[in-house]
Structure formats: C-alpha cells, structure tokens
Amino acid sequence: MLDPLPEIGPAVVTYAAAECDSVPELVGSILRELETLAVKLFPDWLPEGEKLDGPGGGGMAAARVLAMRMATGTRHFGPFLAELAAHAIQHRDPFALGLRSTRSRAFPAEVRAAGLARVVGAAFRRCEVALVVHVPEKLSSHGETVLVAGCEWLAHQSGMGVWLVGPEVKRVETVHLKVPEAVARLAAELPPSETPVEILRVPPLRGEPARYSEVEQAVEKALFDCPWAHGREWNQTYASTDSLFVTIRTDLMWAREKCVVELDGPEHRTAAKAEMDRLRDRRLERDGFAVLRFTNEQVLDDLPAVLRRIKEFLLGRRLGLNEGAG
C-alpha cells in the first residue's frame, strides 16, 4: 500500500519497534538506526558527494565543505550535516568499517532527530518523511506508554509524520484503512514470515539497485561491463490504469525494449505473493511488456546464465524494433 507512493507523498521509513524501558532508550534506538540509514544513503543526499575521495584523500574535509554549502539557505543545520557527511565518507573506507564514530551523536537528540529526517527526505527528493512504526504484539502497559511518548517526541522534534500500525494503543486515535478487496484477500492468506524482520527499512532509491539487496548489487555490477545492457533503469515506477495497480515498481526495466526483470526473494514463494505477482505481470504483459523472473538463488548460483537469458531477449527485441523501423 505504501510502495510506490505518488510523487507528492513523503519518503516512508518502516521501523520494527521493540519494547523499551524508557523514552530515551526508544528514541536513541531509532536515531541510531536512522544514522546508519543516512550513511547507507550517502551520497544521494549530498549534491556532488559522489565525486568525493575516501578519508585519505581529503574526502572528509571536502564532505564538510559540501555539507555546509548545502545547508546554506535550507532547513539543514550545517554543523550536524557536516559531521554526518564526514562520518559517511569515513565508512566508505573498508579499513574504517569497524569504527563507530560518535561525533554526530555529540549533538542533542533534538538536533539529530530533525537533521536525520531532513537527510532521508533529501535522499528520496521528498519534502516530508513518514516513520511507520510496527507496534509489537503483547506490549505491556508500561511499554505502550513509552512507545507512544517516544513517538510523540519524535513527531514533534523531527518534523516526521509518525504512523503506528498493528495493535491498537491508548492515547492514539485509531484509523481503519479500507484497502482494495483483492489486496485484503491476498494479505489475509499470507503465512507468518519466517525471515528475520529488518529493524529499519526504506524503499530502494529510484534509478539504482537497492543498497540492502545483495542480488540487485551483484546484477548491476555484472551489467556495468556489458555493452548490450545500455538503457537499463533500476527501481522505476510504471503507471497503470488498472484499479488494483495504480503504479507498479519494477526491479529492472528496459523501457524501449519493453522488458522487465524481477528478482524474487523467498517472500515470493508464498501462494498469496505468487498470485499478486501473476496479476501484476498480467497487467504489464497487457501493455506489451515481457517479464523475466529469476530467483535470488538463480542469480547467486549462476549469474552468467541469468545474464545470457536477459541478453538473448533484449537482442531479439532490438532486432524486431530495427526491422520494424526499416
């Protein structure tokens, strides 16, 4: 329901909350996760950040300069942004990955909350950010009080919209969302997930492979050296007039050749997800697209075979396009 959102929507971050003993503990946990996310999203939130060298090449100093320049005339707080950019550059160095810089954490929690929210929004080119907090099952009365108070603090201090989903909690108005019948039916059939839930997650950035996906990163690394792979677009949205799929996010697309490549993780093996994929693929095929699906195992076990299949299809489509043009 949240991916992909319209262009006017906020950047959405999902957080799997755990019961905490105090508000500072909860807030600290969320801010640490947001800082880790900001580092992973670098340099998408810093203009010209992709040109910076590593720590040994003056990159940290240059990152601070670019961050201060970015903050000029915007809502960003320059000193915090500069330290966060330097921290991100530090973690580009494989020898520095084990280091845990605390300089950006020297700022008050209020500054970190507002600064991190703005950075995440900048990475997704969105003006606003929403934090979707999954409420734990069987939350104690004290844990519920802490969760609500912490979320209220975050909403006030960070400027993010904070949405609680799951079991109802006190002091928060409950809104029941009406979803399309087909989506509700399929969701009800989903079995409990056996894969560990990530604490913090965001949709992939448009135009590049998801940074948390080993499979997407491996495919892009291989395609980068393939001349025939030109024209590829990662994680783009395709507009559809279908009432169920207003927009569709594709893993990998060649728009001219009308080829979509989907890389399926274990969640696609459930009956409900498989049915949703079938409906989605049918919508694309009605619009002239071909959908090639590969499992994560296929990609990791025999990437050359996956690339050959994609190459054969693309070259065949291009031959047909060229003959049609002639």
Average predicted local confidence, pLDDT? 85
Strand count, sense and barrel status of the largest sheet are: 4 strands, mixed
Total number of beta strands: 8
Radius of gyration: 22 Å
Query: How are the strands of the biggest sheet laid out side by side?
Result: 3-2-1-4
Q: Structural class, from secondary structure content? A: alpha/beta
Count of domain modules? 2
Question: Helix and strand succession?
Answer: EHHHHEHEHEHEEEHEHH
Return residue spans where pLDDT drops below 50 for at least 5 consecutive residues.
94-101
Strand content: 5-15%
Quaternary structure annotation? single chain
Helical fraction equals 40-55%
Count of DSSP helices?
Answer: 10
What form results from the Cα inertia axes?
globular
The end-to-end distance, rounded to whole angstroms, is 44 Å
Briefly say what this structure is.
The chain is of the alpha/beta class and about 325 residues long. Helices cover about 45% and strands about 15% of the residues. The chain has helices spanning about 25-40, 60-70, 80-90, 110-125, 140-160, 180-190, 215-225, 270-285, 295-300, 305-325; strands at about 10-15, 130-135, 160-165, 200, 230-240, 245-255, 260-265, 290-295.
Attribute tags:
single chain; alpha/beta; Endonuclease, Chain A; 2 domains; 4-stranded mixed sheet; Endonuclease_DUF559_bact; DUF559 domain-containing protein; DUF559; Restrct_endonuc-II-like
